[in-house]
Amino acid sequence: MAFSGCGLAGRVFAGDRHMFPGHQEMLAFLDAFADESGIAERVRLHAEVLRVVPGLGLGQGEEGWKVTWRREDGGEVAEEVFDAVVVCNGHHMVPLLPRIQEHPFQTYELQSKWVARVLSGRGAALPSEEDMLASVQEHYREMEEAGKAKRRTHVVMPEWVGYMNWLADQVGEPHLEPRRRDVYEKALMCVFSVDEGYRDKWNKEEDEKNHTTS
């Protein structure tokens, strides 16, 4: 478990060292990330927002949004001005995710950073239309030589390590760690084996390995 740019990888927080830890370990990890990244000190829990008013609409020359709030336990009413306000009322609390096999977090993270750089014009640029077409034709030629069907055009396996490292180079991030690469490959093999108990078997193997080496 880890977020890029946060040195929590490889650490144990609630005593669960398994590759697929339980809920207590996940909660302890998220709490540690919130504390060490400074998020926790910026979040007010158990606070009720009473009013949100655009700053410019008050006629006082203020920019942003004036937020009136108080603690749920009946504390004093406070007012603060923020640059932006996001309303999260739980209307979309159930994710509308398509029924696909996986949602690889790190891949989406690197891709989103790359897209942001391209759109902002900072450090990343798209190739010319001619270069794009030539690259597509070369890709289809390689697929044909390898006997791959066109419906697998967007399948990056087994070249996914090179793709991830290319994305990392584009956005200035370090390459994929060998340990994480091995974990991903083993996890994908387990998933594709259509074995619903692979997490339990993996944890059992880890326990036996640790017992042997201790």
Automatic annotation (TrEMBL):
Entry keyword set? FAD, Flavoprotein, Monooxygenase, Oxidoreductase
Enzyme Commission number(s) of this protein = 1.-.-.-
Q: Where are the transmembrane segments?
A: none
Q: Does the keyword Ribonucleoprotein apply?
A: no
Gene Ontology molecular function, alphabetical = flavin adenine dinucleotide binding; N,N-dimethylaniline monooxygenase activity; NADP binding
Cofactor(s) this protein requires: FAD
What does the similarity note say?
Belongs to the FMO family.
Spell out the PANTHER family in the cross-references: DIMETHYLANILINE MONOOXYGENASE
Q: What is this protein called?
A: Flavin-containing monooxygenase
Please name the source species. Answer: Digitaria exilis
